[in-house]
Automatic annotation (TrEMBL):
Protein's name according to its UniProt entry: CDP-diacylglycerol--glycerol-3-phosphate 3-phosphatidyltransferase
Coiled-coil regions, chain positions: none
Domain of life: Eukaryota
GO cellular component: a single term: mitochondrion
Keyword Transcription regulation: no
SMART domains: PLDc (SM00155)
Catalytic function, reaction form: a CDP-1,2-diacyl-sn-glycerol + sn-glycerol 3-phosphate = a 1,2-diacyl-sn-glycero-3-phospho-(1'-sn-glycero-3'-phosphate) + CMP + H(+)
Pathway: Phospholipid metabolism; phosphatidylglycerol biosynthesis; phosphatidylglycerol from CDP-diacylglycerol: step 1/2
Entries under PANTHER family matching the protein: CDP-DIACYLGLYCEROL--GLYCEROL-3-PHOSPHATE 3-PHOSPHATIDYLTRANSFERASE, MITOCHONDRIAL, CDP-DIACYLGLYCEROL--SERINE O-PHOSPHATIDYLTRANSFERASE
Homology family: Belongs to the CDP-alcohol phosphatidyltransferase class-II family.
Nucleotide-binding among keywords: yes
Originating species: Pseudozyma flocculosa
Any one GO molecular-function label of the UniProt entry: CDP-diacylglycerol-glycerol-3-phosphate 3-phosphatidyltransferase activity
Amino acid sequence: MQLPIFTARNEQVQVLDSPAQFYQTLKQKISSAQQRIFLASLYVGKEEIELIEHIRAALQSRRALRLTVLADALRSTRESSPNPSSASLLASLARDFPNQVDVRLYHTPSLKGLTKRLVGKRFNEGWGLQHMKIYGFDDDVIVSGANLSRDYFTNRKDRYVVFVQQQQIANYLHSLVLLAARFSYHLASTESPASSEKATAYAGFRLEWDGGDRLLLGEDADGTISEGGTLGPSSSNRLPEQGWSSTAQAAVEDFTRRWHQHTLETLSLSSGEDADVYLVPLLQMGPLRIRQETAAIPQIFHLAASASNLEGKPATVDLTSGYFSLYRPYKALLSAPCKGDVQERTRIICAAPESNGFFKSKGVSGWIPDGYTWFEKKFWDALKRSGRLWNGDDAKGGVEMSEWKKQGWTYHAKGIWYTPPHSATPTLFHVGSSNYGSRSSDLDLECTFLISMNSSSPLSHRVKAEVEGLRADAKERVNEDLFNRPDRKVRWRVRFAAWLVGGML
């Protein structure tokens, strides 16, 4: 399928470098938004009262402002009432601004009935989640892997790319959020609106299925967003509460074709003189059989391999994931024996066990860091068998693995960067919500961007600095000595559990 392709100038693509900067940017853009805020995240932290108060103040001061929130139903309702939850926090906005706020919670179609009752809330998220991380404010958008909770604003390392004054990209992403909202539950408050003096941070709620009927905004035929958009749901295309996957798949495919045409028309009307950055959005929605990302990512590896052989010098691919359990086809490509005289240099950053968010967690979830160590070792063993391990000679290429660790921090970054042979800076990078594992490929809703620029551009240098910043805290080399350490021995029960549920991690 042909995908949309957007263009931008270098200064319209910004790279943030810290959780604190991410949080400050969120608050600043909430405060300055005039027409729309649209947020897609796995969840909003139940303790994020300050963030919600910033949104509340913006809605109170600008009655034309509209807020659309898309989060995951399972994660947002993990805590049972009357305990505070992400859903009850968001419900307070739905309660107090019913004509300005639309909150939608996606529930995977893969978990239902008896299975859902037997699994329980502690493990039900393994069947799939709304995982897109899109934060839009008028015509500015942050695309990230970070959620909206305290650790992502303080000491959880992630990536954040900002598109500035990009109306068409903002419309595309807002339309995407509104489309996903059609096959998500409407979060309704069970309480009456409260005055500003009596407003409480949390509210009672219920989840209602309306097939998108009550969405405040919709997409128009020209790709703009308006109240009562012409491409919204009607009685003929409303999605039912059950059995909507194939209809949703067709809607996403139609959305992609429509936006490919929109961007094609924009490219044909522009001279291209101002465009020095090209951006391709990739959707991955396994439950809907939408597989744009898994079709595109292997092409980066093929590009690196062919360029290395053509130039007689290794190209460089940097890859990182906070949850390193590569999708099987990616793993096969990276660990296959080299077919040419020169192989690409691949540098992989994984999270050390201490940097995993589940480190020292209670119960079975405390096994998760060891499970990722086991996946890491199996991949390293495959590299060793195929002769693809880097031997320290940059001229010969190979795959190098290292672990990220920083005192008091956890690691959640994910991304790919491609640097051609004879270039000092990347010309292509990938950013967004995907962790590159089977779960991202098959179970979750993901949105990412593949971004291309000239190696001499300011953006290329900013992106190189981003990679080097990550590598600066990835000093632990992954090798046989590491896996032989007593603290890195993985128990058999963890290995069995990892084998059993590996596709859900």
